[in-house]
């Protein structure tokens, strides 16, 4: 715990300075972050890193943060989270679903520390969960795709058929069908969160099958780069990817953890932190659309802006009936909306999604 | 050039043991330079990398935990290499071991029977062995090279695991996330040190070291295996059963990797996930050769490798070194270790400067 301070203490001048100021008040609140991949310059982990930097910028000397990147989901995660807690971090953000059981175990062993787990569902007195309603901005990209696609076929490169991914695909179809009732989505799963080669191959296949709008639920920029080369529209995920496809990138479903992280760390310092679950949508600012491509027509931008407000205000509910699944069976009758637990465990595709779970 | 590399008439026994020491010194020096260039205190960084993970009981148990799957995979790989077989698919055999053992744990766990854990472990070893038996069959029947078949089957195994945890074995209460139920306590490996994660699988891995040594160095079967590996023609002339040794070496190799897999599933992870190993089967190849294919050398190599992983994490946690910097140090250490081996068969000689 005092390890990293040792070289400082070796300097007598600093030692004197440390003795002069009130020691306790000057001790920064320490926060650790665990990342599932290298930080890079776009993607899921990069957005969390932006959040960490925002915490440092907002709270200044009151906090000291640490992070460990590329921590595999599995046996290693528990050790890394425990190390961060042992090292004196009073709060740890574990930013991937696969850290759920490890973070739960460590939270039990460190009852005084506070833990926050992204996208999980296990909670405790000192373990909160948080996630974004990525499907809300996905719906908006569906509107854009529905308007821009001439063939009405949207190509979707997805990692794994987990609820979070399925929500995005279904929401995009609903958005697209709100403006083009004949729109369909073709899905290719890559079985990997990060595999630029496979993502690229999947994107090429989808274009060959008639898709003229591409998007992805994976962590690389391969799909938008493929779209740029093929000259078809696309939207990115996690981060703004405009620079990778300046001509064809319409916008991206972007995650912003900044405000949430600053708020939670501030509460932890003030003593007002409590456990719980936050699932923030467009209204919370946790998810939003990134800057739009300058080439997008003004009426479309106005339409997207109007629907954004409609979702924020609750007038537009993305998963509202009638909804039919791929077999044509009614999953949700008219006038009803899916509940949060139903959305969180979504394991079926809407009619109009072409792909197998 | 005043310096020249000259072949030694025979390998130097002293350098055999000095080369790892030389490598460690060079890596420490090289690493220190990198740390200093990045603006970190080099001595503190080296201490954090090599000493801090060993300074506490907790650190030692984590070291043992991390070394366990590496050790099991590497011993299996070494046995195969000694028999002239390149089993580079330990990752797949590990995964199959986790699947087979996990299947037993999920089916019978919670029943409270004494045999659940032994059956889980046996199934794990059998699963790994069965997965390695396919390359053995392909090799003995169709002369398919095991480098290809073992590697390809690794990818197949990971896909099968993915299918199981997305489909039939998915946790019904897990919001459709790809993972199995948590194993019941009676299917979990007991913990050796209270409050740690070091489990009984580590003892099995430790036990494998002298057993593998006995097998290779002290039994007729081991002698036949090594002869087939070193001098296949002589072995054929002596009438040693070549096919039998392919089967034996690959299956044993696979069984050890399978044990590593079930040890992870029924140990620190406690369930099946889409990925059970961050590449232990592949890292095991490095460990096997670092340990000079000898069981006791492999034990040391596995501990070193585990220490490098742990130290790398520690550098990130307490000194905020970037991942790439710790990776550089890890790579440097392995590079110097292999490079120092040159001096086992060669020596440096000063050339007298010739005057024209």
UniProtKB/TrEMBL annotation, chain A:
- CDD domains recorded: PBP1_BMP-like
One Pfam match, given by its short name, reads Bmp
InterPro entries per the record?
Answer: ABC-Purine-Binding, PnrA-like
Keywords, A to Z, come to:
Signal
Provide the ABC transporter substrate-binding protein PnrA-like domain boundaries. 30-293
Looking at the keywords, is Signal present?
Answer: yes
The signal peptide, as residue positions, is: 1-25
- Per the record, what is one GO cellular component? plasma membrane
Say which domain of life the source belongs to.
Bacteria
PANTHER family on file: ABC TRANSPORTER SUBSTRATE-BINDING PROTEIN
Q: What is this protein called?
A: BMP family ABC transporter substrate-binding protein
Species annotation:
Roseicella frigidaeris
């Amino acid at each position: 715990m005092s390890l990293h301070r040792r070289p400082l203490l070796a300097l007598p001048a600093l030692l004197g300075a440390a003795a002069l100021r009130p020691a306790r008040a000057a001790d920064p609140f320490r926060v650790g972050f665990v990342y599932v991949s290298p930080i890079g310059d776009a993607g899921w982990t990069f957005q969390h890193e932006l959040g960490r930097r925002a915490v440092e910028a907002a709270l200044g000397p009151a906090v000291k943060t640490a992070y460990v990147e590329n921590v595999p989901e599995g046996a290693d995660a528990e050790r890394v989270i425990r190390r961060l807690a042992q090292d004196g971090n009073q709060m740890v953000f574990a930013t991937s679903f696969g850290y759920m059981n490890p973070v739960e175990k460590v939270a039990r062993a460190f009852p005084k520390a506070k833990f926050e787990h992204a996208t999980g569902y296990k909670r405790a007195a000192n373990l909160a969960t948080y996630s974004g309603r990525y499907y809300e901005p996905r719906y908006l990209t569906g509107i854009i795709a529905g308007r821009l696609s001439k063939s009405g076929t949207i190509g979707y490169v997805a990692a794994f058929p987990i609820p979070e991914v399925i929500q995005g695909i279904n929401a995009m179809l609903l958005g697209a069908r709100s403006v083009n009732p004949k729109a369909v989505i073709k899905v290719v799963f890559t079985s990997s969160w990060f595999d630029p080669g496979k993502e690229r191959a999947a994107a090429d296949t989808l274009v060959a099958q008639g898709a003229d709008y591409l998007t992805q639920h994976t962590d690389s920029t391969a799909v938008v780069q493929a779209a740029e080369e093929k000259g078809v529209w696309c939207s990115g995920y996690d981060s703004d990817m405009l620079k990778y496809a300046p001509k064809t990138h319409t916008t991206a479903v972007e995650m912003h953890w900044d405000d949430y992280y600053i708020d939670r760390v501030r509460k932890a310092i003030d003593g007002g932190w409590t456990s719980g679950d936050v699932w923030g949508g467009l209204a919370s600012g946790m998810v939003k659309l990134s800057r739009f491509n300058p080439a997008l027509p003004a009426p479309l931008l106005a339409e997207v802006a109007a629907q954004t407000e409609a979702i924020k205000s609750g007038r537009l509910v993305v998963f509202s009936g009638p909804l039919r699944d791929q077999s044509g069976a009614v999953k949700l009758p008219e006038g009803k909306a899916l509940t949060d637990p139903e959305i969180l465990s979504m394991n079926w595709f809407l009619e109009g999604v072409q792909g197998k779970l | 050039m005043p310096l020249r590399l000259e072949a030694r008439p025979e390998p130097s026994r002293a350098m055999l043991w000095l080369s790892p020491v030389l490598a460690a010194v060079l890596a420490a020096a090289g690493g220190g330079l990198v740390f200093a260039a990045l603006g970190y205190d080099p001595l503190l960084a080296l201490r954090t990398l090599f000493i801090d993970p060993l300074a506490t009981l907790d650190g030692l148990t984590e070291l043992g935990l991390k070394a366990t799957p590496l050790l099991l995979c590497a011993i299996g790989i070494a046995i195969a290499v000694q028999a002239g077989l390149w089993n580079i698919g330990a990752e797949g055999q590990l995964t199959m071991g986790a699947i087979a053992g996990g299947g037993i744990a999920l089916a019978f766990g919670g029943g409270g029977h004494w045999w659940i854990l032994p059956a889980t472990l046996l199934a794990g070893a059998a699963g790994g062995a069965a997965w390695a038996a396919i390359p053995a069959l392909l090799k003995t029947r169709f002369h398919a090279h095991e480098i290809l078949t073992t590697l390809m089957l690794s990818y197949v195994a990971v896909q099968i695991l993915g299918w199981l945890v997305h489909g039939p074995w998915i946790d019904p209460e897990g919001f459709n996330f790809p993972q199995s139920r948590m194993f019941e306590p009676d299917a979990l490996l007991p913990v050796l040190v209270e409050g740690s994660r070091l489990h009984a699988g580590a003892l099995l891995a430790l036990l494998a070291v002298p057993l593998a040594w006995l097998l290779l160095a002290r039994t007729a079967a081991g002698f036949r295996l090594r002869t087939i590996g070193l001098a296949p023609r002589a072995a054929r002339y002596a009438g040693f059963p070549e096919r039998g040794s392919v089967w034996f070496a690959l299956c044993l190799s696979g069984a050890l990797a399978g044990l590593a897999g079930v040890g992870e599933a029924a140990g620190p992870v406690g369930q099946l996930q889409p990925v059970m190993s961050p590449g232990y089967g592949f890292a095991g190849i490095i460990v096997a050769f670092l340990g000079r294919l000898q069981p006791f050398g492999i034990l040391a190599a596995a501990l070193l490798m585990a220490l490098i992983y742990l130290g790398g994490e520690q550098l990130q946690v307490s000194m905020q070194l970037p991942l790439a910097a710790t990776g550089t140090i890890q790579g440097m250490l392995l590079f110097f270790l292999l490079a120092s081996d040159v001096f086992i068969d060669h020596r440096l000689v000063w050339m007298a400067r010739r005057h024209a």
